[in-house]
Amino acid sequence: ADAAEAKTVRRSLVDSRDGPVKVECVNRCGDAIKRLGSQGGEEIAAVVVDLSLPDSQGIETLEQLQHASPHVPILVLSHLRDEDVARLAVQRGAQDYLLQERLDGHSLARALSSMLERSAYAEALFLESQRAQVTLNSIGDAVISTDVAGNVTYLNAVAESMTGWSRLEASGRPLQEVLHIIDGDSREPALNPLAMAMLHNKSVSLSANCVLIRRDGYESGIEDTAAPMHDARGQVTGAVIVFHDVSVARAMSLRMSYLAQHDFLTELPNRLLLNDRLTQAIASAQRHRTLAAVLFLDVDHFKHINDSLGHAIGDQLLQSIAQRLVACVRHSDTVSRHGGDEFVILLSEVARAEHAAFTADKILAAVSRPHRIGHQDLQVTVSVGIAVYPDDGADAEALLKNADIALFQAKAHGRSNHQFFEQEMDARATAGAVARAMAR
Predict the structure, then answer these.
(1) Range in 135-139, 197-201, 267-271, 302-306 with the lowest mean pLDDT
(2) Quick check: is 341 catalytic?
(3) pTM for this one?
C-alpha cells in the first residue's frame, strides 16, 4: 500500500475493538508475495492489497498472492475508476474489495472483520467437509447421494468400487444409470429406493435378494437403506443411500442351508429334504391322479467291505454308487442317502407301477458293474424294496415304512433283486417283530 493507505490501515487496526493487531506494510506487491511465500503465510490472518501499485500486474498479481498462501483471505483496495478490476478480483477468489475514495478506519475495520468471519466460517465448513469425506471413505459401506431430481451428487470410494463409476463420471447422471439394481429372482429392475424415500419422506430399504450389476457386468448381492435429506425448512432436497455387499453372507447362508439338507459324503439330499419332496410329490400325484413310487435300497454285504478294506474305501464306493443312482433316474426324481449304506429314491408323477420296476432293474444293472476304487475293481449288488402311492401308503411315513419292509423281503429272496410291497409282508414283519421281542 502507499503511505496514506498504510497510515489508515494501521490507525484502524492497531487499536481494534477485537484487540491489538500486528500490521505489516510493504510498498511492492512483489515483497508481499515473497513475505507470504517465506513461511506459507501461516501467521498472517489477512492481506489488504492495492492492485494499482507500480509493480502490480492486476489479476495476475492476485493469483500470485493466492498461490503463495491459498488459505489467507484477500481484501482488494481499488480506486473507483478500477472498480471493474476489483469486481473481477472477487470473482477470481478475493474475499471482498473496498474503494479507496470511501476508505476510512471504520469501513476498513468493518470490511476486514466481515471478511475474516466469512473466511473462518468457510474454513470450518471445509474442515467439516474433510472430516465427512474421510469418514465416508473409511467406512465399509457404499454411500451415494442424489439431488431431488434423482441425479447423483456424491459417491464415496466404496460406492465407486461397487458401481464401477468414479465420482466425476457419475456426477449429474440419473441414479438408475449408476446404481443398476435388479431383483435376484425375477431379474426385473428393482424399485428406485431413493425415489421411494423422497416420495414417502422416510427411510426405506431394498427388498431381499437384490443384486447390484456393476458397470462391467459383475454382480453382487446388496442390502441397503435410503433416506431423504432436508434443508433448514424441512423441505426434501435429495436423498442418500447406504449399501453394502452381502454376496459372501448370502453364499454362506445358502451353503449352510444346502448342508442342512444334503448328505456330506455324497452331496445327495438327506432325510429332511427327501421327506419334504415326498410330501410335495404325494400332493402333486393326488391333484393330477398319478402315482409316486419310493425305492428303498441298501448295498449287499457292505459291512464286509468296510471291515476288510477300510472305511475310506467304503466311502469312495458309496460315492460311486450315488453317482450311478443319479444317472438312472430323471431330473425330476430324487436320490437321497439315509445314512450308512441305505439310499431312498423318489419317483414322482409315475404313470404305472411298472415304471418303478423298470427303474429298479436299471439300478440293479448299473450298480452291479465293477467300481474302480483306487487301484482295484469292486463289484457289489443292491437290494430294492418298492412302495407305490396311493396303494401302499397315503403319506410319506407310510410309504417309507412299507418300502423298507419290501426291502427286507428282497434280501430274504437272495439279495440283488427288487420286491414290491404287499400287505402280507406287513403282517409277516409285525409277527416277526413280536416273536423277536418275546424271545428277548
Answers:
(1) 135-139
(2) yes
(3) 0.53
List the CATH code of the domain at 140-250: 3.30.450.20
Q: Alpha carbon of 330 to those of 273, 321, 326, 346, 359: distances in Å? A: 17, 16, 8, 10, 10
Contacts of 106 (CB under 8 A, 6+ apart): 12
Which of 263, 300, 341, 392 does the annotation list as catalytic? 341
- CATH for 262-439, options being 3.90.220.20, 1.10.3720.10, 3.30.70.270, 2.40.440.10: 3.30.70.270
Question: If we measure between CA atoms, which residue out of 263, 362, 273 comes closest to residue 281?
Answer: 273
108-146: pLDDT as tens digits: 778 777 887 877 777 777 666 666 666 556 567 899 999
CATH 3.40.50.150 fits 3-135, yes or no: no
Task: Return mean pLDDT, the chain.
Answer: 85
How many helices (H) and strands (E) are present in the chain, helices listed first?
16, 17
CA dihedral 76, 79, 85, 87 (to 10 degrees): 60
